[in-house]
Each structure stands twice: as structure tokens, then as C-alpha cells.
Amino acid sequence: MARLVLLLWYLGTLAAFRQASAVEYTALNNASSTAGGARFDGEIGTEYTKKVMNSSTVCIWQIFQELTSEDRRDVQAVSVFIESMEGVAYALIDTNEIHVSSEYIGNYSGDVKNEITGVLYHEMTHIWQWFANQEAPTGLTEGIADFVRLKAGYAPSHWVKPGQGNRWDQGYDVTAHFLDYCDGLLSGFVADMNKKMKTGYSPQYFVELLGKTVDQLWSDYKAKYGN
To answer: Looking at the predicted structure, is the pLDDT value of residue 18 above 60?
Structure first.
């Protein structure tokens, strides 16, 4: 039985790799003349970026349990642009573009390749996730993106620790850790939540999936970590 499960997992992963490779990935450094752009070329590069776009796509499909084209957004191509801009990065869902700040790359202290890999996992999640027709709290959609980054192993050291934060929908790392707690209560919870968000959003989804309101779950989560 265990061998059969392993075989099915392998075949599913192989199929996902093949489908992900069919997506067209492009990466362009529009800030090569800046210090951050030069650092991108020297320590990261466009070829590595395209590999991360592909590997993150497979990871996202697996976490979301979307191994067939009918399950996921219809995305044929994704582009990454390194730009001279403020902030870190953002995704444009209408055009399936990701823009990354060369200033952030230039000023980052530490392993910038690992950091930008994590940023790309986050932004690629936005490309593939469902946005509930813009009805879901922004903190939830951002938390799902950081949940993927967390599960992929690219959570940076500056993130908050599990149990920290003021609200469940505070977003990013706070919500990512909360979603990880919920996923521990029900394996595949985040995948199920994402599926529900294909057509809309309701706080009742938490009750339907876990039997408790999101406020009750947040209270339980905080209590687990003594907060």
C-alpha cells in the first residue's frame, strides 16, 4: 500500500513538472545599470529566476492540490521584471507579471539569492491562487502566499515566530503561521480554502472545514503558544 501511494505521488509530481514546464517563463533585468541590478546579475541571474518560477509552480500546484488544468487559473506565461522601484516586489494578476525591486536586492544584507527565491515563491503564489473575486481579506491572500513560502523552506529569519501577531488576518508571516496551525488540524486545509475561494469568500469556510469560527481558532492558536 505504501509503495502504491509513493508511486501515485511520484506520477502526480512528474505530471505536474511536465505541465509546469509548458508554461512560458521569462525574466528580464531592467535595472542592470543600478547596484542592485548588477548584484542580481552576479548572484541570481535570469536563468536561475526562470528555474525558480518553474519549481515554485510545481510546489504551489502540489500544496493547492491542483494537479489538473481544470483546477487552477488559466496561465500560459509568467514574466519577472527586475525594476528600479521602492518596496520589495508585487504581482500583477491581470497580466501575470512579477516586478522585483533592484533597490531591495542591492540593500539586502545576507544571502540575497535565498531571499529572492523566497520572494518569488510568494509572488508566484499570487499568480496561481484564487482571489475569491476580491472578496477575501487581503491578509488572508497574503498569508496564503507566505504559507507557501514557509512550506517550501524559504521563511527568512526576520519573520515573527509561531503564535505571535495581533490578528489572524494581519497577513504575511503572522497569517502564514496561523494557516500552518490550521493545516495541522486538517491536512490540506489551505488547499481546501483556496478551492473555496475560486468563487468567493466567507468566514463560514473556517467553520465548514474545521468546525470552529476563525476567531475561536485564533484564540486556540494563541493559547497553544502561551499568547
So the answer is: no
Q: Cα separation of 66 and 163, whole Å?
A: 29
Give tens-digit pLDDT for 39-72: 999 999 999 999 999 999 999 999 999 988 888 9
Q: Which amino acid is at 227?
A: N
Query: What residues form DSSP beta bridges with 27?
Result: 80
> 12-16, 89-93, 192-196: which has the minimum mean pLDDT?
12-16
Bridge partners, 24 (sequence order): 77
Ramachandran sector of residue 176 (left: φ over 0; alpha: ψ -120 to 50; beta: rest): alpha
Alpha-carbon separation of residue 92 from 38, 96, 201, 213 (angstroms): 24, 6, 21, 32
- Domain boundary among the residues 98, 128, 158 is at 128
**Cβ–Cβ contacts within 10 Å for residue 158, how many?**
8
Taking a C-beta distance cutoff of 8 angstroms, is the pair 127, 75 a contact?
yes
Q: Quick one: cell of 144?
A: 496564503
Whole-angstrom Cα distance, residue 118 to residue 147?
11
For residue 30, how far is the Cα from the chain centroid? 24
Contact 27, 53 (CB under 8 A): yes
Of 92, 112, 128, which one is at a domain's C-terminal end?
Answer: 128
